[in-house]
Amino acid sequence: MGVLNASQLALKAARSYLSPFTTSKSWLSTRTSLLGDRNLLLMGPPGAGKTTVGRIVAQRLGLPVIDVDDDVLEETWKMPVSAKLAAVGGERFLEEEGKALCGFSASGCVVSLTGSNPLHAAAMRHVKQSGLVVYLDVDTEDIVRRLSRMKVNRIVGQEAGASMRKILRYRKQFYEKWLDVRVLCGTGDTVEEVAEKVLKAVERYQNPAGETYVSTRSGSKESSKHKTYFSDVVLEGLAPDGGLYVPKTGFPKLDTREWLRLAGMSYPERALALLEKCIHPIDIPAFDLREMVFKAYGENFASEAVAPVKHLIGNQYVQELFHGPTASFKDLALQLMPQLFAYCLPQMCNYLILVATSGDTGSAVLSGFSGLRDGDRHRTGVLVFFPEEGVSEIQKLQMTGYREGNAKAVSVLSDFDFCQRAIKRMFGESGLTGHLAVEYATVLSTANSINWARLLPQVVYHSSAYLDLFRDGVIKFGEPIDLCIPTGNFGNAMSALYAKQMGVPIRKVICASNHNRIITDFISTGECDLRGRTLIASHSPAIDILKSSNLERFIYHVSGGDGHLVRELFTRLDRDRYFRVSEPLLARMQQDVLAGWCSEDDCLAAIRSVHTQTGYVMDTHTAVAQTVAGRLQDGSCPVVVCSTAHYGKFAPAVLKALQSQNIPEDPLEQLKELGAAASRPETHRHMITHLEESGSQAHTVCPAEYGVLVEEVETMIQDSFLKVM
Ligand SMILES: *Cc1c(COP(=O)(O)O)cnc(C)c1O
């Protein structure tokens, strides 16, 4: 990124202001100066431990402590808080409490707020200016138990007879609104442990430079000079040296009590809690992240559970990742990623995302970006190129249904490779990119699966699968599970390995291939050999891939972050179409990952057999994984098969598997036929509606000429963004 705009400058300034101690090794010596003259404000429901934890934290930091109840309210009112509440009633009480807080000023203190302070907006705006708001997030049931033990039977708001639980739930929205940092308190955490978490959270907040990203191809020296933050990697995608970005210090680990908290949460709540740990709040503040996450995993998913886990056969479970708008697991990443992208965008630029697709990516990207808010849509567009003959009828209809506003797909009378190469060439032509920048203030970008913001959201559903099995009593917490994943670019598998790094007890990640078995051969032999290999069409086209781009991240991690090795291997792969890793490295890979492949016949047979036994219909990719899981998994623990697509998306092959007598030509007829044959899982209503709406209209078909594709790009920019005068 050449030019910095005002918001980026502000972000950089905030970072340097917040991290004046980055050269110091021991943070103990800097603990007291962490906050400067800012306050540390503890927020949370009554019974969360704000007062006690506040005292411990203040003592550790050597700071004065202020308890709003005792030191502000009682001082102001000259009477006990409970007397005031009894005298004036809840509504007046909140008003007067807010007024008292507005008149309060302090600096460099630890301040324990009251449980009801956050209900007063003006008061919270006032105190928030003075420091950092730390939310002690305690489970509602724990609070109810503590309050009954403390014999507290009345809190503000209860006059009208509402139950304690109801009030606590109502208040949560206010805590979620004002927090800067969440401290996730587990059942059984002692006050000392919570205080320690608070100190760690504050330290993290003050040190954004502790969470930077490096390229998988960077040497140890280069990486220390330049700092790359989350917002940079989201916009850049690929690192300048051709490598992929990974977090420099790995993934944060959650402790068991934190995981147990997550088990009681909904999918978006789990997503928020996990993503807050992985995205620094200076990059995306907690409240904004919350809005994005709840929008991403809301009504656009047909299942309220978002990614439910269901029992299949024996010790096999299936996680349904196809309830999003375009019916593949790519929605789990792509309903969120565009929002992250738009948030990180510089103010003055338009961005046009170019995508080449041979399958599910196109529709998922179009759906994700077309769902942006108006302000963001006006400066973020998507143009998808797909091969006219290279995608299924249903996939084509899914993509061409978008043709207005900021998202559009056009086809090319050539293959996927041509589309991919044309886009790469556009990025490389400074004449073109310069023209677009000057004429339309527009920058070109991509949204492919190497982008960190596509990988990160996938960590959530793997974690969620484990939590569901625990919640439903299938396993005790800590017992292992295996995951089996139909693998193409290794993105889904890589995010499972990241979930393991965060502490999810995943034993093996089992990668499943079809007859294009590059990954399987690599994991079994350590040889990545593309010489003389061509792709053979299959019933599971989304995993027909020669070069698995995210393998680069895997090798980087198992080699202990050896950027030189990664660079050497992947340079060799480009040059010779071959590399081989050492025996010790192969052994380390095999500790985490197994791999196997499934023939076309076995894939269809699995769909038929599972349907006969259980009534459940799998898509072809799921069937590949289910078959491989059956062969490689030893039965000693549950295995979760990732169902990456709804069977409707690959209707002709599934109908063939179910031995349907006459398979109709028309995709909508195929779906009807399938709907009649399958009782579980339910039909994908959103996909069908979308297909019905898009069916009748024509789409743009381009000849296989680079110049024509460039014209399409320019026309799209003219249609989407206002021309710069
Ligand atoms: C993209 C896709 C895959 C492959 O996922 P990777 O992350 O590239 O390994 C598998 N199944 C379906 C249905 C897909 O759309």
Shape: globular
Instruction: State the low-pLDDT regions, or none.
Output: 1-7, 16-32
Quote the distance from N terminus to C terminus. 23 Å
Question: Quaternary status of these chains?
Answer: single chain
What is the β-strand count? 20
**The CATH top-level class label of the largest domain:** Alpha Beta
* pLDDT averaged residue by residue: 90
Helical stretch tally: 33
Radius of gyration: 27 Å
Strand order of the largest sheet: 8-9-19-14-15-18
Taking the sheet with the most strands, its summary is: 6 strands, mixed
Q: Could you estimate the helical fraction of the residues in percent?
A: 40-55%
Structural class: alpha/beta
**Domain tally:** 3
List keywords for this structure.
five-stranded parallel sheet; 3 domains; 725 residues; disordered N terminus; Rossmann fold; 48% helix; globular; six-stranded mixed sheet; alpha/beta; single chain; binds pyridoxal-5'-phosphate
